[in-house]
UniProtKB/TrEMBL annotation:
GO molecular function: oxidoreductase activity, acting on the CH-OH group of donors, NAD or NADP as acceptor
Protein species of origin: Sphingomonas hengshuiensis
SMART domains cross-referenced by the UniProt entry: PKS_KR
Similarity comment text for this entry: Belongs to the short-chain dehydrogenases/reductases (SDR) family.
Listed name of the protein: Short-chain dehydrogenase
Domain Ketoreductase: 4-177
Length: 261
């Protein structure tokens, strides 16, 4: 069927950019999707010539999904080995003070956008042998934290969707993976915490938590596609959280009542 191919949302920065560079370096054709045209061009400039197509799109728009994947399928010869559903935003702060717009945006982009991507990519994934759907969730999908209620809610939704599709799509030969990284130093953390004058990055630093390098996340996405793990937990904070959720739930509950914001 030709050259192996990956389609990446949120490809204009952060994890999406790092994964694009990682896969392109291994000879994969890359479809880059993002709402930022400038971000897409910046990522494309990091890849070998002729390896990538760019698609300006909003993951909430189903028509744009179909148009972008149709265009990518022309470039890839109808092949889609990996759909990387990665686009997302961050919203932090007390749940009670969240605005209607903040709620609608984070649900629309982080959850509905992932659902849209999975639905739109399904025919191409099914037609490509040994394909994979990789959805970006978060360590927030391991246990919810005070100050991150909305973010945890949508990321738990992404985790639940991934677990369900892992069961449904196995018969179609489609692997499903859910990425759950700890905090990554990306533009996502520039988002202000609702009702405050500080950013999510400031909150992470104040809590004494580490940032996981982007290269480490990209390497784990590569290994996830090659391997057989459904849950891809990346970074020290995420691993500690998963351990505590399983073995020390009471202690974790008391700690989370303080939150990070």
């Amino acid at each position: 069927m030709g050259q192996t191919a990956i389609f990446i949302t949120g490809g204009g920065s952060g994890i999406g950019r790092a994964v694009a560079v990682h896969f392109a370096a291994r000879g994969w054709r890359v479809g880059l999707a993002d709402i930022s045209a400038a971000g897409l061009e910046a990522t494309k400039a990091l890849l070998p010539p002729g390896m990538a197509t760019t698609h300006v799109m909003d993951v909430r728009d189903r028509d744009q999904w179909r148009e972008s994947l149709d265009a990518f399928a022309v470039a890839s010869g109808g092949r889609l080995d990996v759909m990387f559903n990665n686009a997302g935003i961050a919203v932090g702060g007390p749940f009670a003070t969240a605005t209607d717009d903040e709620i609608d945006r984070i649900v629309g982009i982080n959850l509905v956008g992932v659902i849209n991507g999975a639905r739109a990519a399904y025919p191409l994934l099914k037609a490509t042998p040994d394909s994979a759907l990789v959805n970006t969730a978060s360590a927030a999908a391991i246990y919810g934290s005070a100050g991150l209620a909305l973010y945890a809610a949508v990321k738990f939704g992404v985790r639940g969707l991934s677990e369900a599709l892992d069961g449904e799509w196995a018969r179609d030969g489609i692997k499903v993976r859910v990425l759950m990284p700890s905090f990554i130093d990306t533009p996502l953390l520039d988002s202000p915490v609702s009702g405050t004058n500080y950013s999510a990055r400031d909150s992470v630093r104040a809590a004494g938590l580490e940032f996981t390098p982007l290269d480490a996340v990209a390497e784990q996405v590569w290994k996830a596609v090659q391997g057989d793990k459904l849950h891809v937990i990346v970074g020290k904070t995420a691993r500690r959280l998963a351990f505590a959720a399983r073995w020390m739930p009471g202690r974790l509950r008391r700690r989370m009542r303080g939150g990070i914001a």
